[in-house]
Design brief:
The complex is a heteropentamer, with 2 copies of chain A (256 residues), 2 copies of chain B (264 residues) and 1 copy of chain C (328 residues). Chain A is an alpha/beta fold and 256 residues long. Chain A contains 8 helices and 9 strands. The mean pLDDT of chain A is 89. The model of chain B has no long low-confidence stretch (mean pLDDT 91). The longest helix of chain B has 39 residues. Chain C is 40% helix and 21% strand. In chain C, strand 8, helix 5 and strand 9 form a beta-alpha-beta unit. Chain C is globular. The chains are: A alpha/beta (256), B mainly alpha (264), C alpha/beta (328). Chains in contact: A-B, A-D, A-E, B-C, B-D, B-E, C-D, D-E. Strand 4 of chain A pairs antiparallel with strand 1 of chain D, so a sheet runs across the interface. The structure holds adenosine-5'-triphosphate (2 copies) and magnesium ion (MG) (2 copies). One magnesium ion binds next to helix 1 of chain E. Chains B, D: It is a multi-pass membrane protein.
Chain lengths: 256, 264, 328, 264, 256
């Protein structure tokens, strides 16, 4: 099973009624059990692309499809940057939301819900409302919610960008641990180049105006232990390479 | 040479200034005592400003005589019925124009066209249409409640974070479930804001309507004793209305805390 | 709101002996004797420097009199006046300023011209428009009913807050009957939408309004008597001019036109309108003293006054008697 | 074997549904046309529901005859004066209790004790105290404006980001300058929210007070024509009041945009 | 001239009316032209300490003073995490606020204001209101405001934490450029260890419960060019050392 993004293009009408091309000629495939990371400067269309893949936006042309899948209605799990937990539901109720909507039995909801809440380490906060959680805990609940539907494709849009640097580092490690247990096909969006290098099997670098694929970089490092002394230099090289690709665009974005 | 030392001190200490806890009581207690004294020693005639003690005693007598009971039930009937009808319609229509684009395009301009009319101005019209009985008064109150509620419900629906709708759809909700599980709870805080706003307006309309066209009710009682210059009984009426307003507000707040435990 | 003006026109010579008296009143026909006294200089003759404070509403006049802001008040006698006294305010009623009297048209009960109501008895279960609760109209309606064997519980009294409101609601039939005074009765009859069922004065004698003295002015017997001498002269002048009857018919007296002219000037109204609404007044300005107790009893029975009071507390006829004696 | 292909489609497309721009007009226009027809062909007697065209014509006649002018100036005088006094006092006292802790401790309980009284209930009392003239009506309106404004001003002061106060102090502001340059502009948006809320209340109070105790003014005019059952003139009155409400609101919004250009 | 933090201790009363010691035994000195960075896990008292030094909070005991300074009223410039620009003032009006309050002449305000607005690259946005600026531009205005008063001590509390990773990298570079021109004594708070190593002359590591100084680390690297290939390994070692000091506390903080 793989997810094919084929000739995707997206134009918006901006506030001055002008047509703006946000994405153009986007073509790539997310293979089974592959972790693909999208990086690029602000406004290059990362979120737009992720939303199109997630079925939350229609492409102007082109299409996105699953290939070689049995189910007629593939499951998607999305983790949002804004977290988007339902404030009126407790952690548990949030996590099992997708299961409820699929008509899964109460008993199974309990089982699956508890399993994933456990996995993200929120067992003690099962019955807490989102407002009672810290930023890091909220995002973990968001991840558990996306995992609970056992998705065919996991989408994450800058899930850790609102967290402080230390929490972020710890969450990246945790995410990798979880991913190693689930091995979900994943499309991950980030601004943070170190994060991309740390997590990705493949990094897709976008340029802006219009958002196009500038480069696709395979990260040839073992999936775990990239932080170790011995890989540090190589990681740092990848990061530098990506930064050189983006830098110019990022500076331009800052001046807008 | 001695080294110069410039100590840095807290320049926003004034923000943390504390006042003794009893100051709050002092204000109200002071006013009441002053008021009592002023009326007692006759600086101001009790005809114009009866002493608080006098008002309380008069109130008790009116309670015992059953006078308050009759007027209060008449008023309560009107306001409860009017408020319930107005709030129910307001929430319903607010949800409809909030969620359906076509209803929004048609309904919103109509709502905003009628909204600025001070509702009491319609009382004579309703008396013409519906007679001078309870119906016209209940309608006026319902109408006065309807508008703040419908507008707040509408804004409430519109202010629901679209991210949450997207999340719900992503996790498999159909449109009905989006309304039931996302739009409705998401709009609830704004709906309550509307209900609270409407509470004050409904009371104002009740009193005005009773003064203009009623024989019974706390409003007409206040006017009645105003005409008769029986100030202490007038004040009892004002006191009852103010308690009514207070209870109304507290009840809504209690309900809000029950229904929106997740509110920050 | 009240505005002060020097009421004594003409004479500006300052007699050192003159006592200054503040009079609070409305620009209504029923203040006619005061207008006459001012206009014809009766006050100065008695050595009184009369200052007038014009008011917009009746109630504040009583309040101002009781509070001593004015020495003399001239206005209607309502439940609120009795409640004021019961509430500890002090004033005394000393003279007549208009009453319902048999044979003289003043206030009447009207119904719509299409109405099948013909007698007061027919009013059972009907709506009667009055101005306000505790007003003179309220009292008259209640007493009319009682004189015809009904009580206020048998009808619905609808307060409409104003006299124009009474005419309007009658015209649109929102009430079945109203009480109205002159010249409004004539206006209704002229427009043809109403008819008179009965004249109040034909059923009851009723002291509708009076002259009040503040406690301190009443205590100044000399000035009070002087004032009432002037007032009594003026009422007599008024009575002779506009209220004399020959063979049961009112005929214009000697000074008829002059009196109408004075009233028209003070009230800013057309003389033709004034002529229609000349209230009955006692020739010597004497109060219908026993009626005050009757009023108090009725209001008390209807629970329109909080604490029953004794008429003696507020009526003082001695001052006027003294004044009349001095005049003769 | 053919590979299975499952295309991902946009599941929140319903959120972007557009309605034709003319739908908004349709609603209002439809109602007006229906109303005109219903009255014209006499389904409903024009006595109860005069046609819109009839109302406009009557309005024009009343304008020409000067009837509207007299009543409107009386009403405008009351509301402008009352609103100005109430708003000025409300802002001033709100700032004082917002900034001085002691004033807060004393003043706030008093404000909240009087707040729930429906202000129109005080009209008979004010008539007793101040007479039936303009003063009592103006006072009622001022009082009705005072409370929402004082409470909003107070919350406005309290809601000023303490970070901004700290920033100002850091950069050398003394307390007076903190009030002038930080608290006041920071509270402005909330003050305007209060002013807008008060606009509706003031109009309601104006009409009620004029109906209960006035010979002149749009409110008493509406009641007058209600009593006379002259529905078209009554409707003209309602129309004027609604325009008044609209203009009032727009004027405040215009002022807000002038004074708070930095508002998001 | 130096700034001495002497025996500072701070206790708060928490919501349960219990006394909580936020800071204890804090002693260090910021030398002239020194860039000191405070790092530590969430809730260790970084902001509390910075506020005490900035005169926005009173220490429970101990004191903070300038030593060897001529003026009687030393100038402080603070850059806040929340930026705290006055929304009702344009960029220029914000930048000259401190000058106005000191009674500097209009002409000088113009001169100094324009100079610093130029320095942070906001010349084109002089007359814009804060709402019209992006996050990065807002923070630059905040920095210009703090510099404009020509402070004896510059305080910065996580100034870049709300920015995205790429903007942050660019802003760090800019800050260093500016600092090299002004050489202000600086106390800088951050969660981000790489940032600390990139900017600091000295890093003070705090531990939590209560906030105490765990270690003071001198960064023996040239002030500019720490991003260069040749220093990358050394930087990375410093960062690792600091991370090892904090990690345990950071994990604990995440679970609260
Ligand atoms: N609904 C919309 N209407 C008009 N233009 C839009 C809309 N959504 C996005 N855009 C424009 O499309 C471009 C891409 O936006 P997008 O949010 O996908 O970028 P991004 O890479 O996610 O940026 P960021 O890193 O800031 O999140 C931007 O120029 C943006 O202004
Ligand atoms: N006003 C206050 N009242 C009570 N406790 C407070 C107060 N301010 C801070 N604290 C407590 O003091 C400790 C230190 O807080 P501080 O904000 O200084 O930490 P920090 O290191 O800046 O954290 P962060 O990295 O999250 O910004 C925390 O435990 C906090 O809960
Ligand atoms: Mg994005
Ligand atoms: Mg902090």
């Amino acid at each position: 099973m793989s997810i094919v993004i084929e000739n995707v293009e997206k134009t918006f009408i901006d506030s001055k009624k002008k047509e703006v091309t946000a994405l153009k000629d986007i073509n790539f495939t997310i293979e089974e059990e592959e972790f693909v990371v999208l990086v690029g400067p602000s406004g290059c269309g990362k979120s737009t692309l992720l939303n199109i893949v997630g079925g939350l936006l229609s492409p102007t042309s082109g299409s996105v499809y699953f290939e070689g899948i049995k189910e007629s209605n593939p499951n998607l799990g999305i983790v949002f940057q804004e977290i988007a937990l339902f404030p009126w539901r407790t952690v548990f109720e949030n996590v099992v939301y997708g299961l409820q909507e699929r008509g899964v039995s109460k008993k199974q909801q309990q089982e699956i819900g508890n399993h994933y809440i456990d996995m993200v380490g929120l067992t003690d906060f099962k019955d807490a409302y989102p407002k009672q959680l810290s930023g890091g805990m909220k995002q973990r609940a968001g991840i558990a919610r996306a995992l609970a539907v056992e998705p065919d494709l996991l989408l994450m849009d800058e899930p850790f960008s609102a967290l402080d640097a230390q929490t972020r580092t710890l969450m990246q490690e945790e995410l990798l641990t979880i991913w190693n247990r689930t091995k979900l096909s994943t499309l991950y969006v980030t601004h943070n180049i170190e994060e991309a290098v740390y997590l990705a099997d493949r990094v897709i670098v976008l340029s802006r105006h219009p958002g196009q694929i500038k480069e696709i970089i395979n990260i040839d490092l073992p999936k775990t232990g990239r932080n170790d002394e011995k890989y540090r230099e190589q990681s740092s090289k990848y990061a530098d390479e990506i930064w050189q690709l983006i830098r110019h665009d990022a500076e331009a974005a800052l001046k807008e | 040479m001695e080294k110069q030392k410039q100590v840095i001190t807290n320049r926003v200490a004034f923000l943390d200034k504390k006042v003794p806890f009893y100051t709050s009581f002092l204000g109200i207690a002071g006013i009441l005592v002053l008021w009592e004294i002023v009326s007692r020693i006759g600086i101001v005639s009790p005809l114009f400003l009866p002493a608080p003690s006098n008002i309380v005693i008069t109130g008790w007598e009116m309670l015992v005589s059953g006078e308050i009971y009759g007027n209060l039930t008449a008023s309560l009937y009107r306001i409860v019925l009017g408020y319930a009808i107005g709030a129910a319609c307001g929430i319903l229509i607010g949800l409809i124009i909030g969620f359906f684009r076509t209803a929004d395009a048609i309904g919103t301009p109509i709502v905003y066209a009628i909204y600025p009319i001070p509702k009491i101005a319609l009382l004579p019209l309703f008396i013409l249409w519906l007679g001078i009985g309870e119906l016209s008064k209940v309608t006026i109150i319902a109408l006065g409640v309807f508008f703040p509620v419908v507008i707040n419900t509408f804004s409430g629906v519109k202010s629901v974070d679209p991210m949450l709708v997207k999340a719900a759809v992503t996790f498999g909700s159909n449109r009905i479930n989006v309304i039931r599980k996302v739009i409705l709870p998401g709009a609830l805080p704004m709906i309550f804001a509307g209900l609270k706003l409407a509470a004050g307006t409904s009371l104002l309309l009740l009193v005005s309507a009773e003064m203009i066209a009623a024989q019974e009710g706390i409003g007409s009682m206040v006017l009645h004793y105003g005409n008769l210059m029986i100030t202490s009984k007038l004040m009892v009426g004002v006191l009852i209305l103010s308690l009514l307003g207070l209870i109304f507000n507290r009840a809504l707040r209690w309900l809000e805390n029950k229904l929106i435990p997740w509110k920050e | 709101g009240q505005e002060s003006s020097n009421g004594s026109t003409g004479s500006t010579d300052s007699d050192t002996e003159q006592a200054s008296v503040d009079i609070g009143m409305l620009k209504l026909t029923s203040s006619a004797p005061l207008f006459i006294a001012l206009e014809k200089g009766y006050f100065e003759e008695e050595g009184i420097d009369a200052q007038v404070s014009w008011f917009e509403a009746a109630q504040p006049i009583a309040v101002a009199t009781a509070g001593g802001d004015v020495d003399v008040g001239a206005t209607g006698i309502t439940a609120s006046l009795y409640n004021m006294v019961a509430g500890g305010e002090e004033l005394v009623i000393v003279a007549d300023k208009g009453r319902e009297q048999e044979g003289y048209s003043s206030t009447a009960l009207l119904v719509h011209s299409d109405s099948d109501i013909e007698t007061v008895e027919d009013l059972k279960d009907k709506k009667i428009g009055i101005t306000q609760t505790g007003s003179t109209f309220h009292y008259m309606a209640g007493r009319l009913l009682e004189e015809h064997g009904l009580t206020s519980a048998d009808v619905e009294m609808v307060p409409v807050n104003s006299i124009p409101g009474l005419m309007e609601t009658l015209q649109s039939k929102q009430v079945d009957a109203v009480l109205l005074n002159e010249p409004n009765i004539t206006m209704v009859l002229d427009e043809g939408y109403g008819k008179v069922i009965t004249q109040v004065g034909d059923v009851i004698d009723y002291q509708t309004s009076g002259i009040f003295f503040s406690k301190s002015f009443a205590g100044d017997t000399e000035a009070a008597t002087k004032f009432l001498k002037a007032y009594a002269k003026a009422t007599q002048y008024y009575y002779d001019a506009v209220l004399t009857k020959e063979n049961g018919e009112i005929v214009p007296g000697e000074n008829y036109d002059e009196v109408i002219q004075i009233i028209a000037e003070y009230t800013d109204q057309e003389p033709a309108i004034i002529e229609r609404g000349l209230p009955y007044m006692d020739p010597y300005g004497q109060l219908l003293a026993p009626d005050i107790q009757t009023q108090i009893d009725w209001y008390a029975k209807e629970e329109l006054i909080a604490v029953p009071i004794d008429a003696d507390e507020i009526v003082n006829t001695d001052l006027l008697d003294q004044a009349i004696k001095e005049l003769e």
